[in-house]
Amino acid sequence: MKISLEICAASVASCIAAEEGGANRIELCDNLLEGGTTPSYATIAIAREKVKIDLYPIIRPRGGDFLYSDLEFEVMKKDVELCKQLGCNGVVIGILTADGRVDKARCKALVDTAWPMGVTFHRAFDMTDNPFEALEDIISIGCERILSSGCRNTALEGASLLKELVIRANDRIAIMAGSGVRSTNIAELVKTTGVTEYHTTAKAYVDSQMQYRNPNVSMGGIPGVPEYGISLTQKNEVLLIREIAEKALKSN
After folding, report:
1. SS3 call for 62
2. Is the separation of the CB atoms in 140 and 162 below 8 Å?
3. To the nearest 10°, the Cα dihedral for 66, 15, 26, 21?
4. The model scores a pTM over 0.90
5. CA angle at residue 74 from 124 to 178, to 5 degrees?
6. SS3 state at 207
7. Which of 58, 69, 81, 163 is most deeply packed, by most CB within 10 A?
8. Among 62, 32, 39, which residue's Cα sits nearest to residue 224?
């Protein structure tokens, strides 16, 4: 077994840092503070030009829940088609029904549209009413992996469910742990869950180069997020996470 590391990147610069740090795959997103939405056409196109590792844009037209209107679904299908045209390796999807189940019909339509690209089912999985039923539904529609925090806020909190999902999946689909994955806890996750695929931003806020900063206006206003901080994946953090995870896997 080997560790597979996916970086959730919100810019082309972060994609480049992810590749330089030894990531296997990139989930390309916009608006990380909303949980990730579909990046622009230009961002996808230039990221595809700049990096050689697998590139999976998220197909999510807005933040919030995962119950989408017919119009939003049309946007999602078109975005999948554009990702294919741009040479992406896969896409990341997730649609639920109003009662908290996987919308198999719509998700299958996106999987079929994406072919021959791969498809990851994102953390909409963690918002389903029955994760074991959702697991079987996602396998049946042809996704290759599920990104999950074990139906908790962080993967560390959901470690016991992640372990059970790995057992039940029985190599029919990959389980990828995400949310709160850091170099400080990756070893514990490897040892307790049996998961070998991990998802993280590996980011830090880098101070802006702006010299003039108007003290009377705030464009952010989000607690914990610096007004003049730019979120960027850190190459050295990617390297460290991989190194620690591989050591933990070998010692298991």
Report:
1. coil
2. no
3. -140
4. yes
5. 20
6. strand
7. 58
8. 32
